Amino acid sequence: AEARPLRLFVALDLPGDVRDALAATGAAADPAVWRAVSPDSLHVTLAFLGSRPPEDVDAIAPIVAAEHHAPRLTLGEVLLLPPRHARVLTVTLTDPTGALAALQERVAAALAEAGVYTPESRPFRPHVTVARLRPRTRPPRTADLQLDPLEFSATAVILYSSRLGPGGARYEPLVAAALRS
Ligand code: 2AM
């Protein structure tokens, strides 16, 4: 029998103190409206591949492993996305050196070259989703949350598989490459 497809995405991993700060922001949002993302699920998506045959993991692994240098980043602001009918509460990332944008472009181009990814036409806007709108809930217009301007280095590039379950998606790391800061 054919192996089941995997729902795959490549993401940037964050240091523990940054995860804690982001989890606190998610937890500070109105719990009647938002469900906070658990600290171990927080990440920055670089490329969402969607449903792929499991064999694709062999082609993706060397692309994930090819990255070495950690982009230096800063937490930006709390932003509701999409702007008019928000479904997620996010924290944007500031990329002062452009290293993250360059890394994302390299990874996306290599994945496309390997035939496992169709690059998005919309520009890459780095963010971390910290809470998701509860079902059948009217999204607020603003988040009204404060954020400390934390500065940090990303820690790793990770290929995740996402399993949809009753309690939301669960992310399983399949390939991880640590980044040097
Ligand atoms: P989000 O954080 O902005 O919601 C795993 O689902 C990750 O892939 C999430 O971080 C999610 O981004 C992103 N993702 C899920 N579905 C997507 C899609 N159809 N297009 C782009 N990114 C997607």
From TrEMBL:
Pfam families cross-referenced by the UniProt entry: 2_5_RNA_ligase2 (PF13563)
Could you tell me which Gene3D superfamilies the record lists for this protein?
Cyclic phosphodiesterase (3.90.1140.10)
Locus of motif HXTX 1? 43-46
Q: What is the reaction catalyzed?
A: a 3'-end 2',3'-cyclophospho-ribonucleotide-RNA + H2O = a 3'-end 2'-phospho-ribonucleotide-RNA + H(+)
Short sequence motif named HXTX 2, residue ranges? 127-130
Q: From the record, what ranges are coiled-coil?
A: none
Q: What is its EC number?
A: 3.1.4.58
Question: Which InterPro entries does the record associate with it?
Answer: Cyclic_Pdiesterase, RNA_CPDase
Q: Which domain of life is it from?
A: Bacteria
Q: Is Hydrolase included in the keywords of this UniProt record?
A: yes
Keywords noted in UniProt? Hydrolase
Q: Which positions are catalytic residues?
A: H43 (proton donor), H127 (proton acceptor)
Keyword flag Ribosomal protein: no
Q: Where are the transmembrane segments?
A: none
GO molecular function terms listed in the Swiss-Prot or TrEMBL record: 2',3'-cyclic-nucleotide 3'-phosphodiesterase activity; RNA 2',3'-cyclic 3'-phosphodiesterase activity
The protein's matches in PANTHER family, at most eight in alphabetical order, are given as: RNA 2',3'-CYCLIC PHOSPHODIESTERASE (PTHR35561)
Family from the record: Belongs to the 2H phosphoesterase superfamily. ThpR family.
HAMAP family associated with the record: RNA_CPDase
Briefly state the protein's biological role. Hydrolyzes RNA 2',3'-cyclic phosphodiester to an RNA 2'-phosphomonoester.
Q: Spell out the protein name for this chain.
A: RNA 2',3'-cyclic phosphodiesterase
Tell me what organism the protein belongs to: Solirubrobacter ginsenosidimutans
Taxonomic lineage: Bacteria, Bacillati, Actinomycetota, Thermoleophilia, Solirubrobacterales
Q: Which gene encodes it?
A: thpR
